[in-house]
Amino acid sequence: QVQLVESGGGLVQPGGSLRLSCAASGFTFSSYRMYWYWQAPGKERELVASISSGGGRTDYADSVKGRFTISRDNAKNTLYLRMDSLKPEDTAVYYCNVPMGGYEFWGQGTQVTVSS
Fold first, then answer.
1. DSSP code of 43?
2. Pick from 55, 87, 92: which is nearest to 70 by CA?
3. pLDDT digit string (tens) for 28-76?
4. Measured distance CA(110)–CA(103) in Å, rounded
5. Could you count the other beta carbons within 10 Å of the beta carbon of residue 7?
6. Cα 4 from Cα 24, distance rounded (Å)
7. How far apart (Å, rounded) are the C-alpha atoms in residues 22 and 62?
8. How far apart are CA 114 and CA 11, in angstroms?
9. Which residues have C-beta within 8 Å of that of residue 84, sequence separation ≥ 6?
10. What share of the chain is helix, strand, coil (3-state, %, to 5)?
């Protein structure tokens, strides 16, 4: 079955960096556009970034443009989110996502906390 497992979250100071990973299995990873979302406390889940199946097209929310970079390694079935110049408002649980066959598949999420 489809599995998405995020890792790499943690506590970081403002201005710091983190790289999140999402290990995918149970489907042909290289055939699907992939997404990162975040959900801050008390807020709805929001789209952060997406990447085409081959990696050639990326899109970002305005709030993270120029600071976050989405990428993928289709040989390793892994999705990444490099986050630089982190701000306290980036604090959230981060989820990877793939829509497939009319369903939305989600990982369990990884917590990112930006605080001094």
1. S
2. 55
3. 999 999 999 999 989 999 999 999 999 999 999 999 999 999 999 999 9
4. 21
5. 14
6. 5
7. 22
8. 6
9. 17, 67, 68, 69
10. 5, 55, 40
Q: pLDDT tens across 77-116, in order?
A: 999 999 999 999 999 999 999 999 899 999 999 999 999 9
Two tokens, residue 109: 């999420």
Long-range contacts of 38-43 (CB under 8 A, 24+ apart): 38/90, 38/92, 38/93, 38/94, 38/95, 38/112, 39/92, 39/93, 39/95, 39/109, 40/89, 40/91, 40/92, 41/91, 41/92
Q: How far apart are CA 44 and CA 64, in angstroms?
A: 17
pLDDT for 58 equals 98
